[in-house]
Automatic annotation (TrEMBL):
GO terms for molecular function: (3R)-hydroxyacyl-[acyl-carrier-protein] dehydratase activity. Gene3D superfamilies: Hotdog Thioesterase (3.10.129.10). It comes from Thermogemmatispora tikiterensis. InterPro entries: HotDog_dom_sf, MaoC-like_dom, UPF0336/Enoyl-CoA_hydratase. The chain crosses the membrane at residues 64-85. Keywords: Membrane, Transmembrane, Transmembrane helix. This is MaoC-like domain-containing protein. The lineage of its organism: Bacteria, Bacillati, Chloroflexota, Ktedonobacteria, Thermogemmatisporales.
Length: 152
């Protein structure tokens, strides 16, 4: 099925609107409910997430969030940009625990006019200022409903 001319124009405008250096920020506190829903939805029944006795005996000392639950914060920002990801990469640096607050900052780094792709990086920092996760991704926006953060 072919996209309409109006949709193609909307995608063109969305791509033109995002420039390298633009930043978007999302912060949230992860709850026990978030972890239970994510594990149930994805089938991630890892004992590090669900078994308190197992996790207490591990080097973490308690249950940890699934890494992709934390990483999914970029989909909140991406969803508000109508962003279609073509690739994603994650580097997990520190565990995140239920009850912790994480701030995700997405910064667009490169714009490939020929392929019509944007490259971005994301940094995830906990409430103590410790970076817990890094991500890199590419794709294209289609419908922007989120304003970029002011330049630092």
């Amino acid at each position: 099925m072919a996209a309409s001319a109006e949709f193609k124009e909307q995608v063109r405008r969305a791509f033109a609107a995002i420039q390298p250096g633009q930043r978007y920020v999302f912060r949230r506190t992860f709850t026990e409910g978030d972890m239970a829903l994510f594990c149930g939805l994805t089938g991630d029944y890892n004992p590090y997430h669900l078994d308190e006795t197992f996790a207490r005996a591990s080097w973490y000392g308690r249950r940890i969030l699934p890494g992709l639950l934390t990483g999914s914060m970029i989909t909140h920002i991406g969803g508000l940009l109508g962003f279609v990801a073509t690739e994603m990469h994650f580097r997990y640096l520190k565990a995140v625990y239920p009850g912790e607050t994480v701030t995700c900052t997405v910064t667009f780094a490169e714009k490939d006019e020929e392929q019509r792709l944007l490259s971005a990086q994301a940094s995830f920092v906990n409430q103590d200022g410790v970076e817990v996760l890094q991500a890199w991704f590419k794709g294209f926006p289609t419908f922007i409903r989120l304003q970029a953060e002011p330049s630092p």
